[in-house]
Amino acid sequence: MNFNKCERCGCFFVTDSNICPKCAPKDNFEMKVLKDYLADTVELNSIDTICTDTGISKKNLDRFLKCDEFNNLIGNDNSNLKMNL
């Protein structure tokens, strides 16, 4: 276990995650919202559009899009979904 700073709220905590236990449910909810949004969207124009449509902040959206489960949606020439980041 490490002493970490939560990437979402900035508080310090001890765990293996990069998100504190208080923020984990919010993070999980927003990731589900993003997954559902991306599943229903054929083509996305910008980060601003996603933020406006989902209510997810740019900071959290950037963090989510760096996750492995979203790698196939951005920067992958074989993907059906293209985003102008």
Counted up, domains total: 1
Q: How much helical structure, as a percent, in the residues?
A: 40-55%
Model regions low in confidence, pLDDT < 50 over at least 5 residues = 76-82
Major beta sheet summary = 2 strands, antiparallel
Walk across the major sheet and give the strand order.
1-2
Q: Would you list the SSEs in sequence order as H and E?
A: EEHHHH
| Rg measurement, Å | 14 Å
Beta-strand content estimate:
5-15%
The shape, in one word, is elongated
Average residue pLDDT: 82
Number of helices: 4
**Helix/sheet category:** mainly alpha
β-strand number: 2
End-to-end distance, in Å? 34 Å
Describe this structure as you would to a colleague.
44% of the residues lie in helices and 9% in strands. The chain is mainly α and 85 residues long. The chain has one domain (23-85). Strand 1 and strand 2 (12-15) form a beta hairpin. It is elongated.
Q: Would you summarize the structure shown here?
A:
The protein has 85 residues and is mainly alpha-helical. 44% of the residues lie in helices and 9% in strands. The chain is built from 4 helices and 2 strands; from the N terminus they run E-E-H-H-H-H.
Task: Note the topology.
Elements: E1 2-5, E2 12-15, H1 24-40, H2 47-54, H3 58-65, H4 68-71
Antiparallel strand pairs: 1-2
Throw out a few tags for this protein:
two-stranded antiparallel sheet; single chain; 85 residues; mainly alpha
